[in-house]
Amino acid sequence: MAWVYLLFAGLLEIVWATAMKLSAGFSRPGASVVTLVASTGSFVLLGLAMRTLPLGTAYTVWTGIGAIGAFIVGIFYLGESATATRVVAAILILTGIVLMKSTSAG
């Protein structure tokens, strides 16, 4: 169950990061509320996952899901650039997540 919590925590991280961008420095109330609610949910689920999973594994996977997800949202939804260097960096992050998951007990 810890991995399910962690997956949803990571997905909520993507939501809050995107909403924070759309809040324009917390000047847009709707996006600001989404940011606060999604970040709270993300932290709660991360905490539940950490009951079982090692800190390093849980935190790395959580931030990795958020980073890769935000990268993808940035490109496909916000029109950010997908340079070769950025894509390689995302692949390296994804590789790190897979390695961390594959070497973790729990």
Automatic annotation (TrEMBL):
Q: Gene3D superfamilies attached here? A: 1.10.3730.20
Record's bilayer topology term:
Multi-pass membrane protein
Localization recorded for this chain is: Cell membrane
Origin, by domain of life? Bacteria
Q: Which GO terms describe its biological process?
A: xenobiotic detoxification by transmembrane export across the plasma membrane
Q: Name one GO molecular function term.
A: transmembrane transporter activity
CC terms in the record's Gene Ontology section: plasma membrane
Transmembrane regions listed in the UniProt entry: 33-50, 57-77, 83-100
Question: What is this protein called in UniProt?
Answer: Guanidinium exporter
> Species name for this entry?
Sphingorhabdus lacus
